[in-house]
Design goal:
It contains 16 helices and three strands. By secondary structure, the chain is mainly α. The protein is globular, with a radius of gyration of 20 Å.
Length: 413
C-alpha cells in the first residue's frame, strides 16, 4: 500500500528517536526534523463531527463488511478468529444476564459484587452483535438485546474504589454492541432506556476522571468517547478527546519530551522524585527509552490496557473524521514497538530499564494499532508484527478487549 502523509511523518520520527531501520522503516519521502517535531508537538483541537458516523465505535460499515466477506470466504486469519469467538462462552445463546442495581468493585476485585458479571455480559453482547452481523442469524441479535435490556432495566451505580475503572471497562464494550444493534439492525424497543443508562450511570463518572494510573484514565476516556459517539453527544466527545490529548503524552515517553516525561498538570508531579515514583521507579530516560510507558516497569499487562485504549480512541476518532495521528500516532507506534521488542525477547532487557527485568504479558492488544499504522499508513513495525502474528487469533482479555484479529487484522477500511 502506498504510504500516506501520516506514514511519512511517523517514518522520520523514528530516525529522530534513534531507532534502527531494522526495527522501523522510514519512508523515503520523509519530512524534515523541524516538521516532524512540530507535528508531534502541535495540539489538536477537539472537534466533534457535524454528524456522527454510525456504526462508528471502533468499527464502521466498511470494516464490518470486510470481516463478513472474509469469514464467509473461509479466509485466514479471520475464519479461525471467528471460530474462536463462536466457540467462546460469550457466544452462548443460553447465557443468562446477571444485572445488579449496584455494582461494587474494590481494589484487586475485593469485593467483586457484579463486576465480572457486568464486564462479561457487555463483552457477550458485543460478541453476539458481531455474530449477528456476520451471519444475520437473528437469534444472536435477540441475545445481545436481551443482555443490554437486562442491565438497562437494573443498574443504578458503580461503587467502591475500583468504580471508575469498572465503569470504563464495561462502558467500553456496551456501545460497541449497541452501535451494531441500534444503527444497523434496528427494531430495538428498549434502546432509549439503554441510552439513558449510558447517559446517567456511566458517562458522568467517566467524564469526572479518577486522576489515577494511566491505564485507568485511558480506559475511561475510551469508554466516554465511545458512549459519546453512540449518544451523538458532541460535548462529551470534545471533553473526552481533550482529556485524551493530555493523557497520551503523559503515558508514552518520546525522547523529544526531554530529560523527563510529560505530566498531567492536575497530578502535581512537580519534582523529579515524584515523576520517577509515578513511572514505577524508572529514572533513566532519553532516546533509548523512547516508547516506554508510565506502567512498563509495573508490568506489561497494565501497560497493554493503556496502549489498547489509546489505539481504540485513535481508531474511533478516525472513523468520525478526526485525524489525531499527527499528535498521537508516533507515541502509539513507539509504545507498540518498545513493548513488543521485550515481549518477544528480541533483545535482553538492559540494566537501566526497570532494573533489568520486566514482567511480560502484554495481552491481545496489538491488532488495532498495528493495523492502523501498518495496513492503513504503510509503516513497517517488525517487532510489533512478529508479536501480532504470533498471537493470532487474538481473543479477549475478559475485561474490555475482544476479537480484534477478527475485526482489525489486515482491514483496509
Amino acid at each position: 500500500m502506498r504510504p500516506g502523509p501520516i506514514a511519512r511523518v511517523l517514518g522520520l520520527s523514528a530516525a529522530l528517536a534513534g531507532l534502527t531501520a531494522a526495527v522501523f522503516m522510514a519512508p523515503a519521502s520523509a519530512k524534515t526534523p523541524e516538521e516532524v517535531t512540530a507535528a508531534v508537538a502541535a495540539p489538536a483541537v477537539a472537534a466533534a463531527p457535524a454528524a456522527f458516523t454510525h456504526p462508528g465505535v471502533n468499527l464502521n460499515t466498511a470494516q464490518l463488511d470486510f470481516v463478513r466477506s472474509k469469514v464467509q470466504a473461509g479466509a485466514q486469519p479471520w475464519k479461525a478468529a471467528y471460530d474462536q469467538m463462536v466457540a467462546s462462552k460469550y457466544a452462548s445463546l443460553s447465557r443468562t444476564a446477571k444485572p445488579r442495581a449496584t455494582v461494587e468493585c474494590g481494589s484487586f476485585s475485593n469485593p467483586n459484587n457484579g463486576c465480572t458479571d457486568e464486564r462479561e455480559d457487555a463483552i457477550a453482547a458485543y460478541t453476539d452483535a458481531l455474530i449477528w452481523y456476520i451471519t444475520r442469524d437473528d437469534a444472536y441479535a435477540q441475545k445481545a438485546i436481551q443482555l443490554m435490556d437486562a442491565w438497562s432495566a437494573t443498574i443504578k451505580d458503580h461503587t467502591n474504589s475500583n468504580a471508575p475503572l469498572q465503569t470504563g471497562w464495561a462502558g467500553s464494550s456496551w456501545p460497541k454492541a449497541a452501535e451494531i444493534i441500534k444503527y444497523v439492525r434496528g427494531n430495538w424497543a428498549n434502546s432509549g432506556r439503554f441510552d439513558t443508562m449510558l447517559r446517567n450511570v456511566y458517562l458522568p463518572k467517566l467524564l469526572a476522571g479518577s486522576n489515577s494510573n494511566g491505564n485507568w484514565e485511558l480506559t475511561m476516556v475510551e469508554a466516554s468517547t465511545s458512549i459519546a459517539v453512540y449518544l451523538n453527544d458532541k460535548s462529551a466527545y470534545d471533553s473526552s478527546i481533550s482529556r485524551y490529548l493530555t493523557r497520551v503524552p503523559a503515558y508514552i515517553y518520546l525522547a523529544s519530551d526531554g530529560a523527563l516525561p510529560k505530566t498531567v498538570p492536575s497530578q502535581n508531579l512537580n519534582t523529579t522524585a515524584k515523576i520517577v515514583n509515578y513511572w514505577q521507579g524508572q529514572s533513566t530516560f532519553g532516546s533509548a527509552m523512547t516508547g516506554l510507558t508510565q506502567e512498563t516497569c509495573r508490568d506489561f499487562v497494565h501497560t497493554g490496557y493503556g496502549i489498547s485504549s489509546i489505539s481504540h480512541v485513535l481508531e474511533t476518532a478516525r472513523l468520525q473524521g478526526q485525524d489525531l495521528y499527527p499528535q498521537v500516532g508516533e507515541r502509539l507506534r513507539q509504545a507498540l514497538g518498545f513493548q513488543s521488542r521485550y515481549e518477544i525477547q528480541a533483545q535482553p532487557v538492559p540494566s537501566n530499564l526497570c532494573g533489568g527485568s520486566v514482567v511480560r504479558g502484554l495481552g491481545p492488544i496489538t491488532e488495532v494499532g498495528f493495523n492502523t499504522l501498518n495496513t492503513l499508513h504503510g509503516v513497517a513495525m517488525a517487532n510489533t508484527q512478529t508479536l501480532t502474528e504470533r498471537q493470532r487469533p487474538s481473543g479477549t482479555n475478559n475485561l474490555f478487549v475482544a476479537w480484534e484479529t477478527l475485526t482489525n487484522a489486515g482491514n483496509p477500511n
